[in-house]
Amino acid sequence: MSSPVIEGVVPILVTPFFEDGRIDEESLASLIDFNIAAGVHALGVALGSEVFKFTETERLQMIRCVVKSVNGRVPVIINTGATGTDLGVHYARMAADAGADALMVMPPTFFPVGADEILDYYKAVSKAVGIPLILQDIPQAPISPGLALKIADQCENVEYIKVETLPVTQKVADMAAAVKGRLTIFGGAGGAYFIEELRRGARGTMPFCSQPREFVDVWDLFNKGDIAGARKVFDASFVGINRVSGQGGDLFYHVHKQLLVRRGVIRSAFVRSPTVRIDPLTQREIDEMLAGIVATPVAFAGRS
Fold first, then answer.
1. Interatomic CA distance for residues 93 and 82, integer angstroms
2. Are strands 43-45 and 76-79 parallel, antiparallel or unpaired?
3. Domain definitions of the chain by residue range
4. Which fold is adopted by the domain 8-230?
5. pLDDT tens-digit profile of 124-179?
6. Between β-strands 204-205 and 43-45, what pairing exists: parallel, antiparallel or unpaired?
7. Which of 78, 74, 79, 104 is nearest to 216 (CA)?
């Protein structure tokens, strides 16, 4: 059975925690329902989910909870990138066995490695699983358009690439010209350049999960040819939150989780340590910005 083509809006789920740092599975299920109700095309677990702060047990817990809560309604993408090939294969098999529909894999980043080593890494992961792979091009480990095409040609499960190396819009254009449809291109970076990426050949984005309906609206309007309408929704919905959340460090986790709390989707905005400390003035600015999105906070009621 062939895998469904993944494109469109694929939010990366934040991980809701209790105040003591445990994964809040009820809030996670509520978050998943919130996104699917908004019309998203798939859901992901990745760096935006704080996976690098998980224990091995929690990594599997998160995958199983997401797969169970999604229950086949949309494809589930799990980030299984690792610092070593054997570990990457282990994470890939773990996610595939737990029900992931596709895997997103960044190159090893702990030590710089060359193109041949990166190719060998992806070959090993591709051979280990029978589901689609998404290459993840990031500033710490960029994947050139030529290397992306070489990996795709030699790894039958590689079907997608998420482009996040700066300058993102130019990299998307260069990637689209090089791969000529061999790979489906996604944008990243929180969806900050969604429209520009679509114009240059991207077929989707992987933003945060706090504003799924607005991202779906931009996607729908763009694909109807209403670029002005898409731009109007984008500017009204995302410019303010991008300005505040992009001020430094991992402030974006706090901002998006606080918005989800304000919307009544998750119970707590707790972010695991280490994380930025928010000074009172910045918190006031966050509160003012979020009040413009959700005027009256909604109490968390659990999964409906």
1. 13
2. parallel
3. 8-230
4. TIM Barrel (3.20.20)
5. 999 999 999 999 999 989 999 999 999 999 999 999 999 999 899 999 999 999 99
6. unpaired
7. 74
